[in-house]
Request: fold
Amino acid sequence: MRISRKIAVAAVSGGLCLQGCLYTSHHFNTGRLLEPGEHHWEIGIGQQNFVDYGCSEAEAARADQALKAELVALGIPLGNQQSWGRSGTEIRKDDEGNPVCRADRYFVLDSNQREYTHATKNFPVTTATSHLISGSLAWRLGVRKAWGPLTGVDVGWRLEAPTGPASLELDTRLGLPLPERLPDWSHSISLGWGIGAWADNSWFGEYALSRGFGAYRPFANARLTYLATQPSDLGVRSTFNRFDAYRRWVGQGVLGCEIILPPLFLLPRRILPTVVMAYPAIPFTVEYVHAATNGIDVSLALGLSWGL
Reply:
């Protein structure tokens, strides 16, 4: 028990160093709470929505021609004795903070390259969407039985990556009462905190419901997150001394089934395959630009749980 507490404290302390974390997607909450003093470890494997931005060579060439035409229109002659140079194409933010490709070019105006004029032009980025393999580690502890109208309380944390770079969340689950004629049903609400090290943090609420059928327990849960500002969402006027908040709501829903296994040495006691839906889907990206939303994202996740 002491070792588990030390690990929990270390995970929380390490999470304070995380920056710009997205929401998690490994939600294996069945609505059933742990008994007081009972605790378990959980490993998750899933998919993380990822967007890779790029700049088309064909679009860059068209930007070159457009820049030449604009300079000619301004009265800058482009004769045969003048050379044309490129200083690069890179992904930048436009005035709204959205990703664009910027052709950064210069014209050399004499053969000795002592005079030149500089120009830039933006053109749309290309995007490639995929799913990366993600992993998570979680720990939960039952803290008390019935408390007023509640049927129980447990607490826990989850560390998931990659989410830019990783996300640490802590939450408290509160068991909700049910009529005695529904003994196989369980449901709960959760209130949680996702640690962020930028302008703000994430906050979420979750509801979970399940029904047991022997060794099988189908479940569903729904979460609403008030997402922290992401580094890629910082405005063009932001600096490392002051951050502009860019908050948004994200909804997630999960359908899954808990499968209870017989107690075998070192093997998990529970397997939890799930389908995860998120809206709006905010992808993880390595570029320091707005991570544009992609409508509804559907991914898969698998939980493995060891009860101690």
Remarks:
- The first strand starts at residue 39 and ends at 54.
